[in-house]
Each structure stands twice: as C-alpha cells, then as structure tokens.
Amino acid sequence: MSRPEFYTAYTPYQPECSQGWLQAIYEYQTVICELTGLDVANASLYDGGTALYEALMMAVRLTGRNKIIMDNGVNLIYRTMLYTYTKNLSIEFVEIPVVHGQSSRAELGKHLDDKTAAVIMQNPNFFGAVDDYSDVVEQVHKYGALAVGSFYPVSLGMLKSPGEMGFDIATGEGQSLGIPLSFGGPYLGFMATKKDFVRKMPGRIVGETVDKDGKRGFVLTLQAREQHIRREKAMSNICSNEALCALRAVIYLSLLGKEGLRELAEFNYQKSEFAKTIFDKIAHVKVKRSSPTFNEFTVMLPGNADEIVNKMIDKGFACGFPLGRFYKGMDQYLLVTVTEKRTKEEIAKLAESLEAVLCA
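^ thats the sequence. predicted structure below, dont judge the formating
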C-alpha cells in the first residue's frame, strides 16, 4: 500500500488509467459485503461516525420519514455527531435506554410507529455487550422502518452478521483492520446495504465490466462527483472516501482469510474472557456479566474510575475507559478492552497493578 501508484493517485474517474485503483476498491467492496452479509458496499467513508450519519440520512431519503429511534448503547461520540450534523434538519430523535447492558425491547415498542424512519443500534454496544437483534429488526420492519447498525468488524469473524440479522444498512469503523492508529487517525468508515437501496447510497461504487475487446475491467458505476451534486438531490455532501485506508483493510483481510478472521475474533474473545477471570479475583472489583461480550467488558470498581485510571497511567497501563465521562451515575464503572495484541502475562500484570492501586 506504500507503492507511489497508490499513495499519490487521484480519484479514479478515468478508468482507462486507473484500473489498479478501481480493482483495489472493487476487492474492498467485496470483502465488506462478505463481512457484513449484505449485497453491496461503497468505496468507503470518512470514519465510523460519519458512516452512521450517512446511513441515518439514507434511511430518511428511502422512507420519507423523519423520526429516528436510537439505542442509548450507541457510542456517545457517534450520537453527538448525528445530533450535530442534523441540527438544522427537521429530524426527531428518540433515545431508548439500555437495560442490563442490552437494548430495551419494551421501550422500543412504545416508540415505534409509522413515522419512524430508522432504528439505530450498535453491536457490540458501547458497554461491550453483544446482542442478537433479529427480533428487533423484525419488529422494525413491521412498521416500514429501516434497521441501521454500527458493527465492530473483527467481531464479525464469530458473531452473527448484520445480513443474518436482517439489517438494512450496516456501518462501522474499520481502523482495526490493519490500520495503525496515530494521533487523530487515520480512520476508515465502511457501509453496506441491500441491493434495493443502492441508488440512495452515498459515495462511490466500483463495478466490474468488460471493454470493447471483451476483457475484464472496472469502472465507477455510481459516483458522487462534486459537479453532479444538485442540492437536496445529493446523496451526500461529506462522502469523503478513505481509499488508502480501504486498500490497507483489504490487504489485511485478504492475508487473514476467512479462517484467519475467525481465529482473530476468537483470540479477542478468549483473551477478554481470561481477563474477566483475573479481574474476578481482585477484592471489591465486580465484573458485570448481565449479557455476553466480545472483547470489551464493564467492571465496577470500589472508587472513582477516573481517579483509578490516572493512577494506573503512572504504573504504565491505560487500563480502560471511565464510563462516568459519558454516562451519569456510572462514575465507578470502567470499560476494559482486550485485543489480540495483549498477552496473558500483560493481562495478569494489569490485574496485579490494579490490585496494588486499589489497596494503596
């Protein structure tokens, strides 16, 4: 992906001199479709948050409605982005609470009606809880609304896919697909949907064709070039794609392969479960087990999580995210994440250091 043909290339509007880039994007779209279990993916978006916003607007265009029901377990950063981007639009938001880590079906039922454009969910949600939303999606469809979700791509190596659950639009943040994180990025937003909705999808879509000699080739089948935008008829005004990051993601997924992705997901899950057993042994620390998790889980500490995290930084550990920063009344709760990069020794050392901080 560091070849100058890729990192200095302009947007591939001219297929006659952009076959390499077009094929790379086509392959990226293919792996995103396989990952999500949906029919069509675009050429990538700016990041996971803007991808979710684009899915919201896509649902509004498709249904002609303006009511959005959103799960409180959706990342607060994403929710803030949705509110900010739609501030000047006549969109009504309803947030439903999370009960025992998962979406409240009862609350959703109270608010679903024929004015609802979409219900937005996240899996795993911000507390790390995993859910099977098949029943929710079925309920949403009864009212003619769309099911929109944000998904952690690595988890799809072992969890039920958006397509299997019946989601209409799936989005997510693809940074974990082999993209090293620096200060402020880079990030990669992905989006996939059903074939019926493709013409309301933002961004570019690369398609396969044949030239006049019958040779295989690639072209921008659908595109949103600046001069094509016609005010309210535009599919998007911020549909920046992240082609170089998308290239890295497709290289990463290609090298892993189907079995490798499953193994990667299992690494994340098993190491997280190991961390839970270690944390369980620390006095006055409670691991929340009200719902299944993937590689993130919530623990309750005997004191203010923010203060404890700061003390852990001094010991060389960024041990988690204090949930009190985003949720009222959760000052003692900490969100812990364990990925394939962490070893058993590091996890044990983290627990040992946490115990020392709590006993000090």
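Residues 243-280 form the longest helix (38 residues).
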